[in-house]
Design brief:
Blueprint lengths: L2 E6 L6 H13 L2 E7 L11 H11 L6 E6 L3 H7 L4 E6 L2 H18 L2 E6 L9 H9 L10 H18 L1
Parallel strand pairs: 1-2, 1-4, 2-3, 4-5
The chain binds 4'-phosphopantetheine (PNS).
4'-phosphopantetheine (PNS) binds next to strand 1 and helix 4.
Length: 165
Amino acid sequence: MTRVVCPGSFDPVTFGHLDIIGRAAGLFDEVIVAVGANTTKKTGMFTVAERVAMLRTSCKEWPQVEIDTFSGLLVDYCRTREATAVVKGLRFAKDFEYELPMAHMNAQMSDLETVFLPTSAQWGAVSSTLIREIATLGGDVTPFLPAEVARRTTERARARRTAQS
Ligand code: PNS
């Protein structure tokens, strides 16, 4: 039985994330999608509880996928959950430059393997950061997000614009 972890901020979950999660679910027995805090990023659009709720709805077609949260080191979380590897999506070279040092450090700290999957070409330009920016500036995010996530993202961005005006 192979259990892997797909960690990320998921603020919010996109079709790019779901592409990787769904393919990981086809490759491994159990997939834990772990929402963690990226300490290098500014405060996000959704709370961790909201991100978890949106992930649960978006991943309900895959019974072998569990949604969880973690704090602290990813290697400690993976050890606790008895996961043998981390699965990450790579869109372009910049992702590789960001992910490779973390993969090396995680392997050195804990023998934790990292499996990189190339993001499907269709979603290669999608990121939560760009989604937040497009929504904040009043753009249409529906092509990039599950319908319920798009609705909540558009609503949150509108509420923020109203609060600022
Ligand atoms: O979606 P993101 O923002 O790329 O997710 C980043 C996340 C949360 C997966 C990453 O920041 C992480 O693994 N944080 C855990 C802290 C940790 O283990 N840091 C040391 C990495 S070598």
